Amino acid sequence: MSEKSVDSEGTGIYEELRPLFFPRSVAVVGVSQDLWKPGSSMLRALQRFGFPGALYPVGGRGGELLGLQVRRSVGEIDDEIELAFLFVPATVLPAVVRECKQKGVRGIIAFTSGFSETGTEEGRALEAELVKEFDGSFRMIGPNCLGVYSPAGGVTQHPGEGYPRKSGEVAFIAQSGGLSEDFARSSPNFGFYASKVISYGNACDLNEADLLEYMEADPDTGLIGMYIEGPRDGRKLARILRRTAAKKPVVVWKGGLTPQGASAASSHTGSLAGSIEVWEAVLRQAGVVQVGGLEELLDTLAAFHFLPRHTDLRVGYVCAGGGTSVAASDASYRAGLTLPHMTAPVHDTIASLLPPVGASASNPVDVLAPFPSPTVLKGILEAMAGSGEVGAIVIDRIVMSTELRRLMKYADQTATEDEEWLSEVPITIQKDFGIPVVVVLREHLDPDGDVAVEGERIRLRRYYQEHDIAVYPTADRAFRALGHVVGYYRQVERRAGETA
Amino acid sequence: MSEKSVDSEGTGIYEELRPLFFPRSVAVVGVSQDLWKPGSSMLRALQRFGFPGALYPVGGRGGELLGLQVRRSVGEIDDEIELAFLFVPATVLPAVVRECKQKGVRGIIAFTSGFSETGTEEGRALEAELVKEFDGSFRMIGPNCLGVYSPAGGVTQHPGEGYPRKSGEVAFIAQSGGLSEDFARSSPNFGFYASKVISYGNACDLNEADLLEYMEADPDTGLIGMYIEGPRDGRKLARILRRTAAKKPVVVWKGGLTPQGASAASSHTGSLAGSIEVWEAVLRQAGVVQVGGLEELLDTLAAFHFLPRHTDLRVGYVCAGGGTSVAASDASYRAGLTLPHMTAPVHDTIASLLPPVGASASNPVDVLAPFPSPTVLKGILEAMAGSGEVGAIVIDRIVMSTELRRLMKYADQTATEDEEWLSEVPITIQKDFGIPVVVVLREHLDPDGDVAVEGERIRLRRYYQEHDIAVYPTADRAFRALGHVVGYYRQVERRAGETA
């Protein structure tokens, strides 16, 4: 709605939306004694999530709920309300919004479905009635959404009780509720935490461009992911994407680019998805990173989170197995990266550490079997990292802990002397040489599906992530993410060069 | 070597290679008292894996090892030897092969590296010397390989102690040792077991075409996967691929199709990888399924394993969330599949089971939240399965067990009445309607990386697989695999039609 914030570089909207992410007081409107119903379960989720401000349930029957007095209307609350969560039926939503305005509420999240997305005359009429209430005195997210998750503000989506409490640097803006939930729940397993996650649904007031503008200005947000179906204001979105992507990496997954997907998008939010050619041109010109699904989105944001401002196409790859080396050479090439041959001195140093036959001291370095001694692995990585011939190192198909080796029944395959510090090697190399190291921990390698094996893998993944090392389950995914990071920063540098 | 088997439709080679997969007696040549060394650890792996025949260790120093008398040479063994595992240095390998011939050994697996793959004059000379020994009296796998895994024969690769004991219907033929190991270890997690896995290395005698011919004739093998770098005999391979793919699904991953991958392949096995255009034409004409990596290979073989001979492009998709629906519509379109709209009667039946707003009764069916009641889910699936309007059903983003719901902290979001049988619903539908049902169980959805959540997911995945239901971690992967199955059988039908 408000375009003034564009000129003030987003600081206007940043102040204006504060009550949505850091409300001092919240009214949950539409509760009943039935805790399975959305309003009441939202109230409980906010309590359990630890919302630090004042909470006011509102429901027609009054009484008490979860230790709080239920007001019969928003007007009855004898406190200032910054944010209202609306779970009332679509037919009464416009009236409740009017009431919130009269109360001086500054932010509204309208969860209710049943508006233009239904494609019915009635739904469109209700949405038109709702929009009439917009006068600039408040800002609204929704309707037909799951709302806002802002861990630093103690706010969560519906149902968001199980979301992480920890706040991070990654924002995610999505039309869809389900995808925003999957994002919030899984991001810690990819090694990062969210600053804010928003499911904005029908975008009657705040749309993807407004929310992006907020994230552009948000000092807590260093990286931005988006899932877009059909934007409300394509031109404004393109402009703000371009401006934001010059400052912070923006990773965009555009849904509905196939005819079948576009048809589904139209029945989901009533939006027009647009053609693949137009979208690819718009996103490329805006300088954002384009991805094709949730997994690639999460992988890519993880790479941006862990890697420095990185423009080097050259990667060193250390693994066990010739086929693995060939597959990685294909995958890195497809990701726009190179695995350069090492020069003779580096090659010879590495060769001196490897068995005389069966291994390979070139790049890819093949250590022959997935359980090298820590001394050998460290020596190889030091030679590579110190060579200046690669800008990052990927380690794959090496069993990275003594415990994992034991659980995978590899323990008898190699001597156990001085193995304990094997898992430290990547951390030491990254620290000592200032070179990004990426670890691939392959999944599903225990034939019995032993939970202990997966548990040790999960522990090791967390351990590396806590020591600032990105972890992927396959080399293909590691290279794809790394390629996006290098591509983005090279493009930023190129544009900066053109401007200078 | 032997081309006669082509005319006899592979039965010649099937008899000829029996000692490699079902040997009555095995000599492990090149053992020492050091159990970390490959020969000795192979002996132990065969013992622990449960090789049922006679085992004879051979090593220059004699003595005893793991309860067995060590012979100083193959000639010293006073028993017939069907298969010899050779772990001797490359320089003496030709001489040991000669000794095996004199002993009347019928099969040899040569693990040793140091031949043509090194790219050295010495390596090439040694390989030429080795090849001179081939006179048709024995068949050999290798050198420079990890050998054979044949669970029904009690034979395993090096190091193969942890491989599954159970035998299945899927064969995997790979130049690479590491990839064959990953395949054997992970296949049970994809829901199937291997009949035979072979890493054939330099293919001095038996190459990919010979081994494929064996699998063509093998009654225990119903499905075949291959990883190929550079074949020894491309014309023969193309011919046997075409002949085999007309009888059994063959899924091929060709490594080294990018310039960088081809360069790595050349240093791995000294083979020429060939151009992408030529390969794609050859594989397409042969009627095999082409995949781009290990994950896609395993996913696709799992789909062939679980799904019947299936040529229906139409899929029903049931999930929770509009964005999820759009994403699946894109993914299924890209996989060559359609998600047709249901006709009015089916749509209305489904709609009557769903909440009046927020859900979607079209296809994709969106049940709104990931925890529908079993009654609702069953009703929807019955309507779809009984409609004749789809040929398979994919269920995604539905929390499929009470325990998983509890662990994911969803338990408070919905009533718990009659939930226990929720996880039974897909099994019942597949059985009652004879329609393939695929379940997507998403990973990494617990923010705390709780091993209990992953454990319950793994248990549930096994449970479905044991009840003949394919399980994937993402809808994208489910559709990609399903698309390969439909594409393969349509092509088989089309060719049968052309011939008729």
Lay out the secondary structure.
Two copies of one chain form a homodimer.
Chain A: H1 4-7, H2 11-16, H3 18-21, E1 25-29, H4 38-49, E2 54-58, E3 64-65, E4 68-69, E5 83-86, H5 93-103, E6 107-110, H6 121-131, E7 139-141, E8 147-149, E9 170-174, H7 177-186, E10 194-199, H8 208-217, E11 223-228, H9 234-245, E12 250-254, H10 259-269, H11 276-286, E13 289-291, H12 294-306, E14 315-319, H13 322-334, H14 344-353, E15 365-366, H15 374-385, E16 392-395, H16 402-407, H17 425-433, E17 437-440, H18 451-466, E18 470-472, H19 475-499
Helix pairs in contact in A: 5-6, 8-9, 9-11, 12-19, 13-19, 14-15, 15-17
Explained architecture:
The structure is a homodimer of 500-residue chains. Chain A is 41% helix and 14% strand. In chain A, the strands form four sheets. Chain A has a six-stranded mixed sheet with strand order 8-10-9-11-12-13, with helices on both faces. Chain A has a five-stranded parallel sheet with strand order 2-1-5-6-7, sandwiched between helices. Chain A has a five-stranded parallel sheet with strand order 15-14-16-17-18, with helices on both faces. Chain A is an alpha/beta fold and 500 residues long. The first copy, chain A, folds into two domains: 12-304, 3-Layer(aba) Sandwich (Rossmann fold); 308-490, 3-Layer(aba) Sandwich (Rossmann fold). The longest helix of chain A is centred in the C-terminal third of the chain and has 25 residues, at 475-499. In chain A, a hairpin with a 2-residue loop joins strand 3 (64-65) and strand 4 (68-69). The interface between A and B is large, with 98 and 99 residues.
